[in-house]
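Sample intake sheet
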Amino acid sequence: MIKSSVKTAMILRVLLVGTYSACLLLAVMLDMRSRVRRTSSTHISSSIADAPTRYTGIVLGCRVNGDDPSTCLEERLNTALALYGLGRVERLLLSGDHGTMGYDEVNTMRQWLVDRGVPLEHMFLDHAGFDTYDSMVRALKVFNVQEALVISQAFHLPRAVYLARSIGIDAIGVPADPPQGSSCRGSAVREPLACLKAVMNVTFLSAPHFLGPVIPITGTPDASFDR
């Protein structure tokens, strides 16, 4: 009987500690998300029409299916194409995951835009944009981007703009959501945890996975091409 009571007490203690830890983590994540949103809220355009003019548009990568962009990525590419067509950006930095020979977000983005009339010489490829933080650090340190329009869905923009501005890029977010809503809006559920990671990256000045030779966005993009 005594052993049973001790065992029950231990189980209750573990459950209480686990619940407390989970609540604490949730509170921290929500606080970090709030910080990210406060920092970026005045630096996000309401639409393409309201976007200012910047030399560079940073298109953040997303899943591809072979040589075809996912619907989520196509939303971003359509927005980038519209901004370029309106003269709001002169150069496009396509930043995504090209970590293996069999998976290539950036060349898929480039081909999609080439097929719609964007000249090759106006696009730069960042093959090591493995996450949003890496994309922004590399935009600054590899491509010397000082100011930019950041193109992604509305749920993602607060974090992307926060990261860009925290490391020194004068960034304005432009939402890529179509009128009926984004096909990837369900991904917003991971934003609290992603915002916690973003604040930690900025606080501890995390290094990106790769840097490499400087390829100025104001020059020629040839060195960023692999084919």
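Comment: The beta strands are 56-60, 64-65, 68-69, 91-95, 123-126, 147-152, 170-175. The chain is about 45% helix and 15% strand.
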